């Protein structure tokens, strides 16, 4: 059977040139791969920036970086990782690929809009990176662009801000596309509570994209206006209010961290039932907790600003709401652990990444509650503790889950199998490396090492050096992951439609899937994760008639 | 040249002449120096200007520093505003810094009010040292007073601009910024720490860099800005943003309900319809 690699539909009719066939393709699967290509290139650039900073920090004092260069490096790392990689991340890549497959649809609701999103994304990337080579160098403001510094610095902030604005637009369009698709294109019989949980994660994410992104777009636009026309909205010398900037920025950017983690939670809920050979524990509570995280996540942004001037009432309320958001997250963690209980656990590579990510995320999440407590936050604000917490949730959580998801759907996307032994080794190296890299930072932060400094006091040297060694291990681990994927492509065994004996719809069609996914749209009146004696409870014949 | 006659011809009374002269001088003057800190990193502060310490003894920066780096603060002892919180914060941080005062670094506080005396300085010093959580070597922190011209020499080279004004209660007060200046043993300015709250980490870093004469850029330039908002007198009559928020929430809620109630796209049974 011909797969989507061999034939495609494009926005301008047919093309002979394979490159044009790719970049104008309106097939959700090809667009997902286009996103992946650009995104992972940027991911490795940003990893490079991080490793450069870690080598600078291996010894106290200045080694080879100027303070300003260091500022630009952490801004580049932050902007690239947040705006270019992890925010669009899972929805645009795995989400784009898997969502229609799991819903039993032939594509997203608006395939052309999907392609436009990718083009806008590329435009954003080009605009952002252009400031590397033009003007007074890349922005040195940090990824948060706090005013009034972002208004006054002579670094080239405008292209970076415009890029973030354009990327926001791309993100909104993707979100819109997903919301409509989930409401309109579910297979007949598939009610909301028969959808796979990855779809639930994407659904909650899509709403955040649609509702929160415009706020940051407008905020960044106001900074642009202020820089070019001198309107005094945030500059206190003109009567503006820099705290207003912080509010507007975090109203988006806090929901944005849930936007990063929710689809990743979805991946966990897919992988766990498959590799425990039983249905997920507490399907409804996981689905609803995704939605409640998206909802409560809007109301907690003030906890970024406990130290920047707010009334005590506001601080207590924000602190309380922050504790509240930990509840649906905790519900998920307990549901996952309960799924493992009495399951037939298969420690395949995707499962290892997911289990590791649950451990990391628990540490990251609990330190988040520590930071949400008012008193502790005043002490820990702007220290390495915050940086460690953030990387435990995003790198140890989201990106571990993302890599787990990539391993999980790798056979579906490529039709090949990767090397299982190498996959496990890569996980081991990365898990140990990650914890060696970030755990010492909790201690350094607690002892008072501020974040974003290019230098530190000599007493902190051992902690920075342990972290440095961890960073090296993480780099090796990532290299092994990439090498494994490359080798699987080159000479991996054929995967077949369902190598994991998984239950959701995408595993009932060939790997890689054909152009319009389903020859017939299946009728779905069953729960997504049902097993009988270790085998998927539901099976279809070639015409999608149920044979079990 | 304008003669009296010519002036009369244009209808300008000769008594206005001094006004013209004054205007002419004013326009020739440089623009008014802004208040605040104009940073001069790597510039040198002269180390042999004479001041009086809190015991009334004549000393210079050079003698006080004795080949060690120093933190310089510019304040006045009768200050009702910024100085006390700034110095209290510094006193608290000095007990937390993991360096030994007198051996590793010195602290110098200079009053820029020329009318203040060593007695004022001694009182301030006694108060501050008594507030510190561990005994602090009194020889390590000197509180200076001096003559106007000598004070100006230091404030000019630091770039510290202040002005005497009548305060709200009729008393004379200085308008001035708050800053800690790190000086290398040779008197070079190596770092500015703006604002009235510092981290012990930053002070220790500043002293270690100053000891080696390394000049570092300022981290927080915006801490100085202070703004006041009067919530009682500055509310909007028509709360546009609140009305907008309610309308928008209603629209979104209605749209969501519409999506939920209308449900999935109706398709022919065989699934070929889209």
Characterization of the model:
The complex is a heterodimer of chains A (548) and B (274). Chain A has 548 residues and is mainly α. Chain A has one domain (18-536): Cytochrome C Oxidase, Chain A, CATH 1.20.210. Helix content of chain A is 65%, strand content 1%. Chain A has helices at 18-23, 28-56, 67-103, 111-130, 149-152, 157-184, 197-229, 242-276, 283-296, 312-340, 349-372, 374-380, 384-414, 420-446, 461-491; strands spanning 531-532, 535-536. Chain A has a two-stranded antiparallel ribbon with strand order 1-2. In chain A, a hairpin with a 2-residue loop joins strand 1 (531-532) and strand 2 (535-536). Chain B is an alpha+beta fold and 274 residues long. Chain B has a domain at 36-212: Glutaredoxin. Chain B has 8 helices and 11 strands. Chain B has helices spanning 4-9, 17-28, 61-65, 83-96, 118-131, 148-158, 200-212, 240-262; strands at residues 36-37, 51-52, 58-59, 70-75, 106-111, 141-144, 160-161, 163-166, 172-175, 179-183, 189-194. In chain B, strand 5, helix 5 (118-131) and strand 6 (141-144) form a beta-alpha-beta unit. In chain B, 27% of the residues are buried. Mean pLDDT of chain B is 81; it is low at 223-230 and 270-274. Chain A binds chain B through residues 62, 67-68, 106, 148-149, 179, 183-186, 188, 211, 236-237, 241-242, 448-450, 453, 455-457, 459, 518, 520-521, and chain B through 98, 199-202, 204-205, 208, 214, 216-217, 219, 221-222, 225, 227, 229, 252, 259-260, 263-265, 267, 270-271, 274.
